[in-house]
């Protein structure tokens, strides 16, 4: 069952009924000012940091769902009937409803009683404000007298404190109202030099700033007293809950359309020039007034919207494919790329599942996210790499997270995850292949942000590699530390205290738990690094890295292979995990993916066997589960993974982040059709048809789909902010479509096409636009393709790497035989 449809031409997802299984959200903003917005206008806004600069209030875990938002009310002033044009919060019947989530904007349109409302919400590029453009049309045969109310509930900045510290907060809230603009000024009198504002292009009918006055005692957002009676009261909040409400009274002739614009924004003043006049205690508004005034102008709003659309078209133009498969095309061309940019902007901070108060930027997460956006915003990827590397510890290890506001590492969510450093290597090598900017390796970067500790980035990578080599266990495999990629495999933890965080608790000393996954990751990273240093002419370091990788492969050969698949780990006591000899947790997905990606077992048939075991034991129609058999109960020696009910999260959920590793592994093992099959199982657009089962948004990946052991098999959770976005993007673009940036050129290795039609790709690379046309056999299912002929700008080229560009345009003709590029069902 569907709740809407894709509009591929406009790059929008169109939701056609408001009561989606869960709030289906979108993101506003791309620089400093951000918001989440649901299909019923729920959500909130913040500047830079979702916890510390929260502008509006939101209630997670509420009933009804998704309360707190950018709420409008329409009131028929002749009958007193009122409703929300975005359905929530009144939930009154709408005769028509349509929400269009687009790239950086959301439009919600509806009609009731002959009054049509279409509201477009977006953040103009470069501004710290959001615009709501409300377009009202009277579809009645006669005139209509209506009131429109626009409302926001201000958050007292720190979202955590706002939700808990009522004894203080009920006394500190303040506002100012000037020329019809509502200014939220809580704590401005003391140490803050920032404030929020809420303005309206037609504020003549008045305002409220006290929530109590607007809603009325014991009333909710579903029936505000001010809307019911048709009049706001000009209230001024003193403490309690400051809010902003503007009322607009309109007389619309038959067929008449009117635009009303609301602007919610954020502004800062210099710390020593906060007040006007100085010492008055009144906010100095001289800088912000012109910004507000211009964004209440329809022409300014329209051109800002056009600029936003153009910016996204330009960004996504870095990679466009026509494969003939609509699900692959729309995800790669629009939604998956967009989701990668959202993870770049938001990391894991704010979604329907991340409350915005918990998590900063993860070291491991941010490095992996980069793989999905580096080609779209290479300059910002460079900055990101340098920020991350500056938090690295002198040991080569890493803080597990850093704060976006301060860019400082912290231990708040734990430390000693021994996989962390290797991801930095993979991020830098990906960046180098994309851009050719090897000079980044010479960039001086401090350790732990300590002035004076600067060393070239290359030194950081070397220490990252050495960090693993200096921490090998009894089987010559990397010590796991607190955990590796799987945060919940806590082999040194032994927590028996209810509620204690597995991520931060003291680990038991003396453990020798080892990770086969980190071994695979290390081999991949060391070999990629070797390629880079070779390129720079440092042959001895290249040789050292390759040798270290080869030694690690030998350890995996000796102790990481279980007979039919790769083992997962060795526990604190040196016993194997992820082995046929275990009762539960016999096979894990992560080492199968990572070891094969690192090339282990490809030459001797073990890779193929491991992949067969995955297909046999882990694959379900909804995707590949993380482990089998699931753990039935808590086990002290394994930690958080066994805390989850079977089938959820790391305990045998379909942890979608890992699935693309298997797609890549299948391609490497020369089974692209198998890879494509896995790709389509978790592709959100494919799953759109079963939205009542999947329940999360059908246009973005979710972290997890409940596994076969779960009663709700197939149900997704934790949509949007997940490493799933980047890895699926990499699997689809680089391994299925097969266009891979390399240091010396663009590898053209298409493994899927349409069984007849041509495969076309446009790829921006090193300042040029490559236009690639792949001709394959017309026989569907003719088997995996290999490039047999490559013609670049009319000149045949040996092999399948198109050289670096010599001009702005590169035309490539490719013939991929024998067989066609694997045929994919349209
Ligand atoms: C989740 C993991 C996550 C970890 C750290 C755990 O509760 O299951 O997926 O990585 O928390 O935030
Ligand atoms: C989510 C975390 O953000 C990520 O870092 C981790 O690798 C996965 N969960 C798996 O535990």
Structure, described:
The protein has 20 helices and 45 strands. Strand 3 (25-28) and strand 4 (33-38) form a beta hairpin. It has 826 residues and is an alpha+beta fold. Strands 1-2-9-10-11-12-19-16-15-14 form a ten-stranded antiparallel beta sheet, covered by helices on one side. Helix 8 (363-373) runs parallel beside helix 20 (724-736), helix 10 packs parallel to helix 12 and helix 16 (659-668) runs parallel beside helix 20. It is 27% helix and 26% strand. Residues 487-488, 503, 649-650 line the site of beta-D-glucopyranose.
Secondary-structure map with pairings?
Elements: E1 4-7, E2 12-15, E3 25-28, E4 33-38, E5 43-47, E6 54-56, E7 71-76, E8 82-83, E9 96-101, E10 105-112, E11 115-122, E12 129-138, E13 144-157, H1 159-162, H2 166-172, E14 175-178, E15 181-184, E16 194-200, E17 207-210, H3 211-215, H4 225-229, E18 242-252, E19 257-268, H5 288-295, H6 298-316, E20 319-322, H7 326-346, E21 361-362, H8 363-373, H9 378-390, E22 399-402, E23 409-415, H10 420-435, E24 444-445, E25 455-456, H11 457-469, E26 514-515, H12 516-535, H13 539-560, E27 569-570, E28 576-577, E29 587-588, H14 589-597, H15 606-617, E30 619-620, E31 623-624, E32 627-628, E33 654-655, H16 659-668, H17 672-682, H18 684-687, H19 691-694, E34 702-705, E35 716-719, H20 724-736, E36 739-742, E37 745-748, E38 752-753, E39 759-765, E40 768-776, E41 787-792, E42 795-797, E43 801-803, E44 809-816, E45 822-823
Parallel strand pairs: 38-45, 40-44
Antiparallel strand pairs: 1-2, 2-9, 3-4, 4-5, 6-13, 7-8, 7-13, 9-10, 10-11, 11-12, 12-19, 13-18, 14-15, 15-16, 16-19, 17-18, 20-39, 21-22, 22-23, 24-25, 26-27, 27-28, 29-32, 30-31, 33-34, 34-35, 36-37, 37-43, 39-40, 41-42, 41-44
Bound molecules: beta-D-glucopyranose and 1-deoxynojirimycin.
């Amino acid at each position: 069952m569907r709740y809407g449809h894709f509009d591929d031409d406009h790059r929008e997802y169109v939701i056609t009924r408001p009561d989606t299984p869960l709030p289906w959200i979108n993101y506003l903003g791309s620089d400093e000012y951000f918001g989440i917005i649901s299909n019923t206008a729920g959500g909130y806004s913040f500047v830079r940091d979702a916890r510390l600069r929260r502008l509006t209030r939101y209630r997670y875990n509420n009933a009804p769902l998704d309360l707190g938002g950018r709420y409008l009310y329409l009131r028929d002033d002749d009958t007193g009937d009122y409703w929300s044009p975005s359905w929530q919060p009144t939930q009154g019947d709408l005769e028509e409803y349509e929400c269009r989530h687009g790239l950086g904007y959301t439009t919600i349109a509806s009609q009731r009683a002959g009054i049509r409302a279409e509201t477009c919400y977006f953040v103009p590029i470069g501004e710290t404000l959001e615009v709501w453009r409300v377009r009202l049309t009277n579809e009645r045969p006669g005139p209509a007298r209506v009131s429109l109310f626009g409302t926001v509930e201000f958050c007292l900045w720190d979202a955590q404190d706002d939700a808990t510290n009522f004894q203080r907060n009920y006394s500190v809230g303040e506002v100012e109202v000037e020329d019809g603009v509502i200014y939220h000024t809580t704590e401005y009198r003391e140490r803050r030099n920032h404030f929020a504002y809420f303005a309206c292009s037609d504020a003549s009918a008045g305002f409220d700033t006290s929530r109590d006055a607007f809603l009325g005692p014991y009333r909710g957002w579903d029936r505000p007293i001010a809307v019911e009676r048709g009049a706001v009261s000009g209230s001024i909040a003193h403490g309690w809950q400051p809010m902003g409400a503007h009322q607009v009274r309109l007389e619309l002739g038959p067929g008449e359309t009117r635009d009303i614009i609301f602007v919610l924004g954020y502004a800062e003043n210099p710390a020593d020039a906060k007040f006007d006049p100085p010492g008055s205690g009144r906010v100095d508004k001289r800088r912000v007034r012109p910004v507000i005034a211009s964004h209440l102008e329809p022409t300014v709003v329209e051109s800002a919207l056009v600029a936003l659309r153009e910016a996204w078209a330009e960004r996504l133009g870095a990679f466009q494919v026509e494969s003939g498969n609509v699900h692959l095309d729309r995800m790669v061309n629009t939604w998956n790329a967009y989701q990668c940019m959202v993870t770049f902007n938001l990391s894991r901070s704010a979604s329907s599942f991340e409350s915005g108060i918990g998590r900063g930027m993860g070291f491991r997460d941010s490095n992996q996210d980069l793989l999905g956006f580096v080609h779209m915003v290479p300059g910002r990827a460079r900055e990101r790499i340098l920020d991350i590397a500056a938090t690295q510890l002198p040991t080569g290890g890493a803080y597990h997270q850093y704060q976006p506001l301060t860019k400082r590492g912290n231990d708040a969510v734990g430390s000693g995850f021994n996989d962390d450093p290797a991801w930095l290597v993979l991020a830098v090598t990906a960046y180098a292949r994309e851009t050719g900017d090897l000079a980044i390796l010479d960039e001086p970067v401090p350790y732990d942000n300590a002035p004076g500790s600067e060393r070239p980035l290359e030194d950081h990578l070397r220490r990252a590699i050495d960090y693993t080599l200096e921490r090998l266990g009894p089987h010559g495999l990397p010590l796991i530390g607190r955990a590796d990629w799987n945060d919940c495999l806590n082999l040194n933890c032994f927590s028996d205290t209810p509620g204690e965080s597995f991520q931060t608790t003291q680990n038991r000393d003396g453990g020798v738990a080892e990770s086969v996954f980190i071994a695979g990751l290390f081999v991949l990273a060391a070999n990629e690094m070797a390629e880079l240093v070779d390129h720079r002419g440092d042959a001895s370091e290249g040789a050292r890295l390759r040798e270290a990788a080869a030694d690690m492969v030998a350890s995996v050969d000796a102790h990481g292979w279980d007979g039919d698949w790769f083992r997962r780990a060795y526990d604190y006591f040196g016993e194997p995990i992820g082995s046929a000899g275990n009762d539960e947790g016999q096979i894990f997905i992560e080492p199968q993916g990572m070891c094969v990606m690192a090339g282990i077992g490809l030459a001797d048939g073990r890779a193929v066997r491991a992949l067969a075991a995955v297909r046999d034991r882990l694959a379900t129609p909804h995707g590949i589960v993380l482990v089998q058999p699931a753990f039935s109960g808590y086990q002290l020696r394994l930690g958080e993974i066994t805390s989850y009910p079977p089938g959820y999260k790391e305990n045998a959920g379909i942890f979608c982040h890992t699935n693309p590793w298997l797609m890549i592994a299948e391609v490497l093992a020369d089974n692209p059709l198998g890879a494509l099959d896995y790709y389509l199982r978790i592709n959100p657009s494919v799953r759109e048809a079963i939205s009542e089962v999947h329940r999360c948004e059908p246009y973005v990946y979710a972290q997890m789909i409940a596994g076969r052991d779960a009663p709700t098999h197939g149900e997704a959770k934790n949509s949007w902010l997940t490493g799933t976005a980047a890895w699926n993007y990499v699997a689809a673009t680089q391994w299925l479509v097969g266009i891979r940036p390399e240091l010396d050129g663009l590898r053209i290795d298409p493994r899927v096409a349409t069984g007849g039609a041509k495969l076309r790709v446009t790829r921006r690379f090193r300042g040029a636009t490559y236009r690639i046309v792949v001709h394959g056999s017309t026989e569907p299912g003719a088997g995996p393709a290999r490039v047999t002929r490559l013609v670049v700008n009319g000149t045949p080229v040996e092999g399948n790497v198109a050289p670096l560009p010599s001009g702005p345009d590169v035309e490539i003709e490719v013939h991929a035989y024998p067989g066609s590029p694997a045929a994919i069902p349209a």
